[in-house]
Amino acid sequence: MDKKQEILESLSLNERKILPLLKEKVIKEIAKKSQLEEVAVLRALEYLGNKGILTLNSSSIKQVDLGVNGILYKQKGLPERRLINVVADKKTISLNDAKKSSGLTDNEFQAALGALKKKALIALTEGNLVFNGNKEEITTKTLEEQFLEKLPMDFEALKPEEKYAFESLKGRKNIIELITNNNVNFEVTELGKEIINESKNIKGEDLIEALTPEVLTSNSWKGKKFRRYDIKSPVPQIYGAKRHFVNQARDYARKVWSEMGFKEMTGTSTQVGFWNFDALFTAQNHPVREIHDTFYIKNAKGKLPDKKLVEQVKKSHEKGVAGSKGWRYNWKEEEAQRIILRTHTTALSAKTLASLDIKKLPQKFFAVGKCFRNETVDWSHGFEFNQTEGIVVDENANFRNLIGYLKEFAKKMGYEKVKFQPSFFPYTEPSIEGYVWNEQKKQWIEVLAAGIFRPEVTEPLLGKPIPVLAWGPGFDRMMMGIYAISDMRELYKNDLDQLRKIKFLSQ
Question: Does the structure show a pLDDT above 70 at 308?
């Protein structure tokens, strides 16, 4: 069988419909005469292109058009126009009266204030708006107003003053929108011309599209052929529903810790300072407890645990335990009652230790959860982040065990390159920081904070200074390497294309 015959027998119903209409050249006309949707016509053209019947060329044109608010403002006037008319009429007017008289919403009023202050047409003095311009100055339409009246326009053809108006308006909500229109052109090939001529002799009903019970029972298949299917043509990618990749990684971490014999600790995102700081021997005057590092719930106080434990923690801070001297200051119960957004999941470790029966040791626990710190957001920091916590309570635990647990977890998370260096934390001694190699950034990234809890932590919580291995990896930083992401902010940008395609590499 020759190539033309194979192509003729592979033409779908929609392809056969548009073949005689290709001379129209215009997609809309083809859709109208074939009674197909434009998207169906475009898909059929693509299939015909794959068969060599025509060549497709596409180009895109950017067009500036009115948004939802732009349509409204074109009729009623921009918020700044409506506000300046009110202020110019009164010369001086209070903010509340100006907002009420202009009929603007809160967002519109704020946007109008910003636009007019930028043009120095108003000033804000003692809660009043003062008109700084003159009547003639505001009667002329602004560049933005002139621009709205001209829309829609070709983006590439904008003049300098129109580009200025575009830049001024594009950041404001739904006033203008930049639309990309795709144009598709095609040319029929020599093979295509031959196919078009010969397709006139093929009746669509002579080809069976699908084998159905009706076709079988009615014997209507007799004397007909099945249409050839083109298995080489590209088809739309189908993406099934799945969990967010960050949650997949969190679940995987839970699986790793569970397989290593750990039990999960859970708790709320809000904690009293007692569990987040005091029980972990963090002094009440430590900089980490300042408002520029920690988020406090305004005017909120929480309940402390039983009095005996509180007294033991107080003693640890003021005078010390197990031979230490403590921090030597007056510990305040009121400070420990303040409610915060937990700065680390180690607060869960403190609560777990306080509830343990030391007759049932050794025991191992882990947690995976959100933490919050008043950080400046950049590629490696966020004010909200995930941490995975771990503790091992064992009278025979040692520092080599700690390194072993950390290396094993890092390995199971996909990191072969790990290194450690000495560090300091108020509640562990000795303390270390762990780094993993990030291939995207081509540098070592700190992800691990670990150590052995100090006696000042364990004696008040457990009743005696039992060794407790503890660590708290920054899990978001670990995920950056797992997903080949170079900026932590990409973990939560919710880009639909990224969410569809990204795969958890450690599974």
Answer: yes
